[in-house]
Amino acid sequence: MPQASLPWVKPVAEPQAFDVAVIGAGIAGSALALALSGHGLRIALVEARPLPQSELPSAIELSAFDPRVSALTPRSRKALEQLGVWPAIADYRPCAYHHMTVWDAEGTGAIDFDASEVDASELGHIVENRSVIQALLQQVLTAPDITVLCPASLVAAERDEQGSMVINLEGGTTLRADLMVAADGALSPVRELLGFATREWDYGHRAIVTTVAVEQSHQYTAWQRFLPSGPLAFLPLPDGDDQHFCSIVWSLREDLVDDLLALEEQDFCAELGAAIEHRLGAVLACGERYAFPLRQRHAVEYVQAGVALVGDAAHTIHPLAGQGINLGLLDVMVLAEEVLAACEAGGSPGTIETLRRYQRRRKGDNLLMMAAMDGFKRLFEQQSPPIRWLRNAGMRQVGRLLPVKRQIIRRAMGIGD
């Protein structure tokens, strides 16, 4: 099919002026475009890769699940409801989970969290990433004030004499925008082009992700075991006909990953079953396995005059608590609030004062969550007997203190401080 006939490619005169240009049409970028839509702004959404064209698979079977899933908190669900996309996500096999079990492989420490302890119906939802992206894009592509340019790679960006951002795209298209937002992922070209400094380090780990069929029901529970080599999570997915499925995220030291990936499916499933202590019976089968490196990264500043970073472009976090997508959606909603407030007051969306308000509201919370996840990882890697004893005793004690547990649960759900 000729590129010009694709429905999401809208002709753009060169140069064309926008109020906001969002670079990256993933979850964060598409959500931001929708959050700003309907308020009299001219919005450009730029994506380097072709947008998905195929229908989502309807079969509930091992090969039909997206290996990339996210654990959406109730707060993130509320944000998606505000954007009008939650009904489409809810129609496509999300899996609510009501319980979480966490235990230490090196001892007897364990803790359980249940939605009933905070009078909630669920702790969150496991959703396939592609279902969230498709739901967002369906709304984006019908919004009259959003111009989508795809595929269109960023070539250069700079400020002009008036303080606007001039954005050059591959193929010669030039955009001018009062505000440019980087929603282009952990390796953000915008962040690099404009010289945003970062603090980052490798964990020395990679995460293996895949979908598995298990012998017993997951009981709508998220299971997480902390091993000396790294945390392993089994996340519940919808059941098929007499079949039980989970998505796994297995963070492992770099030196262990290649050998596991090289195993035959049956042997890999046996290793995986042993690692989770067969809590769900045997691991019967697995889908295609993927591995990606784990790196902590945080931008020293989220903003410059006329430019803001959101989501993974601003921060990447260890996946052990599944908080990445939730932090990104919070960034998006806060930035949209500040931009719209500035515009309603007669200001420009790209002023440094507006953008610093966004940074003040988000940077501290993101750093706190990143520090907590890093601390958990390091704590459970410690193998000295005194640390192990304290770690296990602490887990047991927290499990007995319902007010403390409630505070942890509410914080993780994004419904309280």
Task: Describe it.
There is one protein chain. Helices cover 34% and strands 29% of the residues. The chain has 2 domains: 198 residues, FAD/NAD(P)-binding domain, CATH 3.50.50; 134 residues, 2-Layer Sandwich (D-Amino Acid Oxidase, Chain A, domain 2). By secondary structure, the protein is an alpha+beta fold. α1 runs parallel beside α8 and α8 runs antiparallel to α9. The strands form 3 sheets. Strands 5, 6, 12, 13, 14, 15, 16, 17 and 20 form a 9-stranded mixed sheet that branches. The protein has 11 helices and 20 strands. The N terminus is likely disordered. A hairpin with a 2-residue loop joins β13 and β14. The N and C termini lie far apart (51 Å).
Please specify the SSE layout and strand pairing.
Layout: E1 16-23, H1 27-36, E2 43-46, E3 69-72, H2 74-82, H3 86-90, E4 95-97, E5 99-104, E6 110-114, E7 124-128, H4 129-140, E8 146-149, E9 154-159, E10 165-169, E11 174-182, H5 189-193, E12 198-214, E13 221-227, E14 230-236, E15 244-253, H6 254-262, H7 265-275, E16 283-286, E17 290-299, E18 303-304, E19 307-309, E20 315-316, H8 324-344, H9 352-381, H10 385-400, H11 402-413
Parallel strand pairs: 1-2, 1-11, 2-8, 5-13, 11-19
Antiparallel strand pairs: 3-7, 4-7, 5-6, 9-10, 10-11, 12-15, 12-16, 12-17, 13-14, 14-15, 17-20, 18-19
Helix pairs in contact: 1-4, 1-8, 8-9
